[in-house]
Amino acid sequence: MKTVCLYFQVHQPWRLKKYRFFNMGKDHNYLDDLQNRAIMQKVARQCYLPMNALLLKLIKENKSKFRCSFSITGSAIEQMKAFAPEVLESFKELAATGCVEFLAETYSHSLASLASKEDFEEQVKLHVNLIKKEFGVKPTAFRNTELIYSDEIGAMVAGMGFRTMLAEGAKHVLGWKSPNYVYANAIDQKLRLLLRNYKLSDDIAFRFSNRSWDQWPLTADKYVGWLASEDTPGEVINLFMDYETFGEHQTADTGIFEFMRALPKAILAKKNGLEFATVTEAAKKHQPVAVLHCPHVMSWADEERDVTAWLGNELQNEAFSKLYAQKEKVKALKSPDFDYVWSFMQTSDHFYYMATKWLSDGDVHSYFNPYDSAYDAFINYMNVLSDFIIELDKALAVKNAKKA
């Protein structure tokens, strides 16, 4: 029997307001409160609330045989609390069913795993504590920001006590191998890896409403036919996608909710030989078939499946380096206010907005981008960062003067 592992990523960044050079030294409120509120409430209406209600119904209707997994970033939970508390309550209802697993990740959806082991571990610890507090469960499986993974990152994750991690089923890493099996980390083989089947995931996440796609319209029966088919060999089919696919990227009028409503029943039909499992359940049920060798960092982004979406040009690298150069100062200050800004400034979205990749992936980058250009995104971010550094240095000077 093949296992279907459905995983959803929930994330909302804290968006920065337009912050000009002349704001520096005067204005230390960096966030665009109006935009953050408006976007969270819009996505809550269009995606989170209707989709959570649907999943709850599907769990009940299918007598707990329908199971899925989530990871929700710290910044998304903060915004739910501030602007849409009913969304957080609806996630808690899902947690209470016992059919939904919540994964750990970096608190602020950051690139900390590419910066330093210490930062990475700190952010993960913060996120684990948040999930425990909000949902009453300690995560045992891990997904890194944007499925960023390498042998070394996997070993760090295993070192934090996780036994399962998600990664991209990237062709350049897998070669002839299939993503539809459990693999093991090359350095610490106790860490099991579930690899995203990007074709079947993207059929829902990206191609669902594309009328020029030769498989449009996609029905649940047709899709399940692909999953059950001998043309999809393997033991576990990992369907990983942004939760905002439902109702936001694929709007309600595309039929995405009807598709999702019909999917569990079609999958669970006896003739198909399919079952649902959460991430941890899937990793426990199936033994790793091989070690996955991934010496270079990969992700689920863009055609290259690497990290050039965030660190692919000079603007991004300069901003990233300057941010992480402040690490020791923030640590020395031990101030909750500065820690908070430090956290949201690490969010990977800020670097994504600075991308200059405008080929096949350009439309995806522009869809998620509130700035007119990569340069605008860079200037705005650097203005905020510069003010943060000025204030950080001032606060440290005061602290050191008191010591003296």
| Secondary structure: helix percent | 40-55%
Return the average pLDDT rounded to an integer.
Answer: 95
Number of helices: 17
CATH class of the largest domain: Alpha Beta
Distance between the termini: 69 Å
Question: What's the β-strand tally?
Answer: 10
Low-confidence stretches: none
Global shape: globular
Biggest sheet, open or closed, and with what strands and sense? 5 strands, parallel
Strand content: 5-15%
The CATH architecture of the largest domain is: Alpha-Beta Barrel
Structural class: alpha/beta
| Whole-number count of domains | 2
* C-alpha Rg (nearest Å): 21 Å
Can you tell me the CATH topology of the largest domain?
7-stranded beta/alpha barrel
Give the SSE string: EHEHHEHEHEHEEHHEHEHEHHHHHHH
Report on the structure:
Strands 1, 2, 3, 8 and 9 form a 5-stranded parallel sheet that branches. Strands 4-5-7-6-10 form a 5-stranded mixed sheet. It is built from 17 helices and 10 strands. The chain folds into 2 domains: 2-291, 7-stranded beta/alpha barrel, CATH 3.20.110; 314-402. The protein has helices spanning 33-61, 74-83, 85-96, 117-135, 151-159, 171-174, 198-205, 220-228, 256-268, 279-285, 308-311, 314-324, 327-333, 336-345, 348-352, 362-367, 374-403, and strands at residues 2-10, 68-72, 100-102, 141-142, 164-168, 182-185, 192-196, 236-242, 274-276, 290-292. The model has no long low-confidence stretch (mean pLDDT 95). With 404 residues, the protein is α/β, with parallel strands linked by helices.
